[in-house]
Amino acid sequence: MQRLRESSVALKSSEVPEVPEGAAGPAAGRGRAVHGGRAVSGVTPAPTPARARPRTAARTAGASVAALATAGTLLLAPAAVAADGDKVTKNTVNQDYSVTIAAQFTRPNGAMLSRALTYDPKLVPVNSHVTVSERANSDRTRVGLRVDGLVANRTYGAHVHTGTCGVRPESSGPHYQHRKDPRTPSVDPAYANPKNEVWLDFTTDGKGEANSVSRNAWRFRSGEARSVVIHEHRTATKAGVAGTAGRVVACYSVPFNQSKEAAKAVSGLLGKLF
After folding, report:
1. What ranges does the record give for the region Disordered, renumbered to this chain (predicted)?
2. Which residue did the predictor score with more confidence, 112 or 243?
3. Quick one: which of 36, 73, 106, 274 is 20 to 30 A from 206 by CA?
């Protein structure tokens, strides 16, 4: 059973409604009143409609903020849902997008209880670990990959794919491309290259650990980048085989660039509430 481990919503200061000054504090003049500049003890002025309105506004604003936070969490939930063993460490709605998730690889099964699947346990052992991070602003994307528990001193290919992981290795679909190759499969170096795709090839050390990073001068189209796929060998670059890296040996479903749609939905909710 999938569980949401962590999901948070961060609103800009401009999106948080202002509470009228003094509305949340104690009523002024309790037990004392001022007449002609002189304090008179024991006099409590009767409440006026003008004082009631800020308190009512404050209660309404407070309820609206609470509703917004709840709605924002629900909006983000699909992007932040993690299977048993996964951990969402950060997922916020703002101008920049940042997410880091981690999991252990398991074998595919009908229940699909894990987002990280190994199709070749000899190359990607069961219970080996994977961590993927994304940092994106308006026009740039950084994707990081870390693995441990794999075969020592071995080179693997790795790319961002368009589909999520499934029981079959081909479920993850083709590579994500910023400029789409009109021909499939894409083996033209003009399209299948690390500037137009996200390549994360790595070589493990003596302990089976490795890190890799890809930096691109663009952002993912929302909903079109869904996984990181590990292949059996380094990615080829020559015409006719560019972008190929052998069999798919493992796959990890990742919520890339989900903040844009969620931010629009939150903005629409703000308009309705305020």
Report:
1. 1-56, 163-189
2. 243
3. 106
Q: What is the amino acid identity at position 180?
A: K
The amino acid present at 258, given as its one-letter code, is Q
Sign of the torsion formed by the C-alpha atoms of 63, 64, 67 and 68: negative
Distance (Å, whole) CA 146 – CA 211: 4
Q: Give the tokens for residue 64.
A: 């609206």
Cβ-based burial of 203 (10 A; exposed 0-12, middle 13-18, buried ≥19)? exposed
Q: Could you read off the pLDDT of 210-249 as tens digits, one per residue?
A: 999 999 999 999 999 999 999 999 999 999 999 999 999 9
Nearest alpha-carbon partner for 160 in 201, 122, 129, 191:
201
DSSP class of residue 199 equals B
DSSP state, residue 2: -
- For the segment 40-53, what is each residue's pLDDT rounded down to a tens digit? 344 444 444 544 44
Q: How far is residue 49 from each of residues 27, 46, 56, 173, measured CA to CA in Å? A: 13, 10, 10, 64
> What whole-number distance in Å separates Cα of residue 34 and Cα of residue 114?
68
